[in-house]
């Protein structure tokens, strides 16, 4: 069983036959990791490095999911929307049970309540590197606890994950999912990126968040075709300030940081099963304002936000075959709208999947509220991810 201390980010495995814990040390040049016997202070719930730990990480394997994107790209809204969709989707409920960790419950409850009240999560300001008390960035709490000296990411800041335990209804097996808002801002500076994104080193899943408004020519066309509500959202220059140039740079720097942290050979592509990479095309509700052949499979209908509920469901495919087909259609759309992004992803992450998602289902008003909270396609990335987790397929 693989366990990750979400404070110092060291990895541990548990040998059930020997009833012993081992520290995992990854070898340089992509060699096999070696294990050193270690000790867990279960009584005081502290890892071998003395960090306070969430007790649920000792019960089940932990998978770290990092969301990577620029400021205002909708990362925090996506995390909350996807966890909300996990817990409330009837089709997922037939296969899985989702329980938020007690230590994450207060943060999760506050964030979910804010979106259900149709209020936007707090926007991200400039990154400050000085060590200071816990604060909130993008609505997700950060912690400035220092990592153990000698660790790859020693002394760096980190963000507090939202921890959810997933149980398989069919196999009774369980894993922990740690959702982390990974930094994308100021990514040209690798040192800055590392300070706010240490969880990147141990991520099992990386989800790049790419807004549908990256192409500014199409953004101008969206503004021309928009109704008054969408015009108000599209007029927000901060919300749509992301660019293709910064996004491709972010992808390149994240790949380099991940390789350095994991001593991964530069000549090898980053691929499963070490890490699964997907790209979420966010704010897909705005794509209904332009006329492209792929949009019937990728974007919600233009009247999606007219009512809180819809007869055509939540925009999910659920079926693995259809999810792969939709991924290819979305990839074709990305190649049309911002081809440089697909090229950058293909160089480093050739097994990348694409998912069209709208975290809220509509644009944000000028006063920071939404007409409805109606996520589109938010469950499909979760369905794909859970199918990739081998521990959920094995009987307990």
Written description of the protein model:
The chain is about 30% helix and about 20% strand. The chain has about 400 residues and is of the alpha/beta class. Strand 10 and strand 11 form a beta hairpin. Helix 1 crosses helix 3, helix 7 runs parallel beside helix 10 (about 340-350) and helix 9 (about 320-335) packs across helix 10 (about 340-350). The longest helix has 19 residues, at about 245-260. It is globular, with a radius of gyration of 20 Å. The two termini are about 10 Å apart.
List keywords for this structure.
alpha/beta; 396 residues; single chain; 7-stranded mixed sheet; 30% helix
How much is the radius of gyration in Å?
Answer: 20 Å
* Main β sheet profile: 7 strands, mixed
Q: Specify the overall morphology.
A: globular
Order of strands across the widest beta sheet? 6-10-11-5-12-13-14
Low-pLDDT runs of 5+ residues are 123-156
Q: Pairing-aware structural class of the strands and helices?
A: alpha/beta
SS summary, helix count: 11
Q: What is the rounded distance between the termini?
A: 12 Å
Amount of beta strand: 15-25%
Order of helices and strands: EEEEEHHEHEEEEEHEHHHEHHHEH
* Total DSSP E strands: 14
């Amino acid at each position: 069983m693989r366990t990750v201390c979400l404070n110092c980010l060291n990895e541990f495995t548990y040998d059930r036959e020997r009833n012993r814990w081992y520290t995992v040390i990854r070898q340089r040049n992509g060699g096999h990791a070696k294990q050193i016997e270690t000790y867990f202070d279960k009584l005081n719930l502290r890892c071998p490095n003395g960090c306070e730990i969430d007790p649920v990480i000792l019960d089940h394997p932990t998978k770290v999911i990092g969301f990577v994107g620029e400021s205002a790209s909708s990362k925090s809204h996506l995390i909350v929307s996807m966890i909300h969709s996990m817990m409330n989707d009837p089709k997922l409920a037939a296969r899985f049970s989702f329980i938020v960790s007690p230590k994450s419950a207060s943060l999760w409850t506050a964030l979910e309540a804010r979106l259900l009240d149709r209020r936007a999560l707090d926007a991200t300001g400039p990154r400050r590197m000085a060590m200071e008390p816990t604060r909130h960035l993008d609505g997700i709490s950060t912690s400035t606890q220092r990592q153990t000296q000698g660790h790859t990411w020693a002394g760096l800041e980190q963000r507090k994950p939202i921890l959810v335990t997933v149980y398989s209804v069919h196999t009774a097996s369980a894993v922990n999912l740690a959702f982390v808002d990974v930094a994308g801002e100021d990514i040209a500076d690798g040192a800055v990126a590392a300070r706010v994104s240490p969880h990147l080193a141990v991520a099992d899943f990386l989800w790049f968040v790419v807004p549908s408004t990256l192409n500014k020519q199409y953004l101008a066309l969206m503004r021309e075709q928009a109704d008054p509500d969408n015009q108000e959202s599209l007029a927000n220059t901060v919300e749509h300030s992301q660019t293709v140039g910064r996004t491709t740079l972010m992808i390149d720097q994240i790949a380099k940081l991940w390789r350095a942290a994991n001593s991964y050979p530069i000549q090898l592509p980053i691929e499963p099963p070490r890490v699964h990479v997907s790209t979420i095309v966010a704010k897909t509700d705005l794509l209904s304002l332009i006329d492209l052949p792929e949009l019937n499979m990728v974007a919600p209908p233009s009247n999606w936000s007219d009512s809180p509920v819809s007869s055509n469901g939540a925009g999910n495919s659920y079926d693995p075959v259809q999810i792969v087909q939709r991924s290819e259609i979305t990839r074709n759309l990305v190649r049309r709208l911002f081809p440089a992004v697909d090229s950058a992803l293909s160089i480093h992450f050739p097994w990348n999947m694409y998912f069209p998602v709208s975290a809220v289902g509509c644009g944000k008003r000028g006063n920071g509220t939404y007409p409805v909270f109606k996520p589109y396609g938010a469950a499909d990335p979760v369905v794909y991810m859970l199918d990739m987790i081998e521990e959920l397929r094995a009987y307990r």
